[in-house]
């Protein structure tokens, strides 16, 4: 059998794992989620979720990948024959995400390019330009006119993603993340420092950190915290298992999981500070309350931020930096999502990596063109909602229940991790995965279903 590819260094693996974790979820999902769920008080459930689900599950997924040295279906299949389907389920969710995630990156690309070309000095016209452009995207009726401009950046995104995937683990994925992640960090730090020194920034930060303590008695807030942690750490997407399957034999799994978890959360906090400082500035400029300008998601990135940037000094520069940071964060996550099915298909059908990339990546790329053309945002929103509410909660729930209760593998995995890691796992780890996480995810499923009916 061919020798399994490996990361070139520990840092290489860590940067790749961080690259997957640090994504659009940190930049536009976390700040709004925290704000809506108790502000400063959200940090309590959030930290609890990180320590009882995020890091424990990262340790488990790293252990599974490292121990069985296979993509998700193969690794789960080695735990128990009946579990291979769970790997394919998680891969399916990742595959679906990989058909629309690149569209968002393509927009960010397009906006980076606009930032170069637009004369931002004329703040008003720049604002109008961005806002009408976004509205055109959002409005299926006028969608046709914008499509040609999204096609080129979309093709560019796929070219970059498939290029790095094609070069393999060490020379491709690792190299990409060694470039993208440090660059992202530097760029983002510049943006945050600029944001917190703008007039009004502290009103924004006040609004962000102001704790609403009553929220911690609200079950919904805890569900939001767990949901954010799962999505943000790319858990239950087959990603971390796949990446860990390329670890060398001697690897400190537990330590790596703590580093990944804390790095991602630090970036999340940094993004929250940057975003809310900028929102405070915008409120200040437009004589509004911060609560009136808060937003998240696509709207925050492509509608609110262009407006904020156009009112800043040196808008061209900060436009390029901000949208480039979205591109970098997005690309590194996109590479990790695609690697799940490329590795899975390659192993299952015993074909070359090149073929797997051509079929898997090619199919996803073609479907993404369809997303860019038809119905656009509405469809994208629906799929995203479905994936986040059911794909993740359900596959996370299946994962912990199957492993902890049916296969009863936790003790075994704990021994495996402890043998090669400095930090030894205690009972807290098994309780977190076997009891706390399933209860919260079960509650999350029920809540999602109920909100669908009401
Ligand atoms: N973890 C990434 C983020 O926070 C998103 C992501 C989810 C990436 C699922 C890959 C798979 O943005
Ligand atoms: Na994240």
Automatic annotation (TrEMBL):
GO CC terms of this entry: membrane
InterPro entries: Na/ntran_symport, SNS_sf
Subcellular locations according to the entry: Membrane
SUPFAM superfamilies linked to this entry: SNF-like (SSF161070)
Keyword list, A-Z: Membrane, Transmembrane, Transmembrane helix, Transport
UniProt entry tagged with the keyword Transmembrane: yes
Membrane topology, as annotated: Multi-pass membrane protein
Main location: membrane
Membrane-spanning intervals of the chain: 12-31, 43-64, 85-110, 146-167, 179-202, 222-246, 258-283, 316-337, 357-377, 389-407, 428-446
Pfam families: SNF
CDD domains listed in its UniProt record: SLC6sbd_u1 (cd10334)
Keyword Membrane: yes
Record-given protein name: Sodium-dependent transporter
């Amino acid at each position: 059998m061919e020798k399994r590819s490996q990361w070139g260094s520990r840092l290489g693996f860590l940067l790749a794992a961080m690259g997957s974790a640090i994504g659009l979820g940190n930049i536009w999902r976390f700040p709004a989620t925290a704000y809506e769920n108790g502000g400063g008080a959200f940090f309590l459930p959030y930290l609890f979720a990180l320590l009882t689900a995020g890091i424990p599950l990262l340790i488990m997924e790293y252990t599974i990948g490292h121990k069985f040295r296979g993509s998700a279906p193969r690794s789960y299949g080695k735990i128990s024959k009946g579990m291979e389907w769970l790997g394919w389920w998680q891969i399916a969710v990742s595959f679906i995400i990989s058909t629309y995630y690149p569209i968002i990156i393509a927009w960010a690309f397009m906006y980076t390019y606009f930032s170069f070309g637009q004369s931002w000095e004329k703040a008003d016209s720049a604002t109008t330009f961005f806002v009408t452009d976004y509205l055109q995207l959002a409005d299926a009726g006028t969608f046709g006119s914008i499509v040609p401009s999204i096609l080129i950046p979309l093709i560019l995104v796929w070219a970059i993603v498939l290029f790095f995937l094609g070069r393999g683990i060490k020379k491709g994925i690792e190299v990409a993340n060694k470039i993208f992640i440090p660059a992202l960090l530097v760029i983002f730090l510049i943006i945050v420092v600029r944001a917190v020194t703008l007039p009004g920034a502290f009103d924004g930060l006040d609004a962000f950190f102001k704790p609403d303590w009553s929220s911690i008695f609200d079950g919904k807030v805890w569900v939001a915290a767990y949901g954010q942690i799962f999505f943000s750490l790319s858990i239950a997407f087959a990603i971390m298992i796949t990446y860990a399957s390329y670890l060398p034999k001697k690897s400190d799994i537990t330590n790596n999981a703590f580093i990944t978890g804390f790095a991602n959360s630090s970036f999340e906090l940094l993004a929250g500070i940057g975003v809310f400082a900028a929102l405070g500035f915008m409120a200040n400029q437009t004589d509004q309350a911060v609560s009136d300008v808060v937003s998240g998601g696509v709207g925050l990135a492509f509608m609110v931020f262009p407006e904020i940037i156009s009112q800043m000094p040196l808008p061209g520069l900060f436009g390029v930096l901000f949208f480039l940071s979205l591109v970098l964060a997005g690309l590194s996550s996109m590479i990790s999502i695609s690697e799940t099915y490329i590795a899975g298909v390659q192993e299952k059908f015993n074909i070359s990596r090149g073929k797997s990339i051509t079929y898997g990546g090619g199919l996803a790329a073609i479907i993404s063109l369809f997303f860019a053309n038809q119905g656009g945002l509405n469809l994208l929103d629906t799929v995203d909602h479905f994936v986040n509410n059911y794909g993740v909660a359900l596959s996370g729930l299946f994962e912990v229940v199957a492993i902890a209760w049916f296969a009863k593998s936790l003790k075994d995995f704990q021994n495996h991790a402890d043998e090669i890691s400095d930090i030894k796992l205690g009972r807290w780890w098994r309780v977190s995965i076997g009891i706390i996480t399933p209860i919260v995810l079960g509650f999350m499923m029920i809540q999602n279903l109920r909100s669908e009916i009401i």
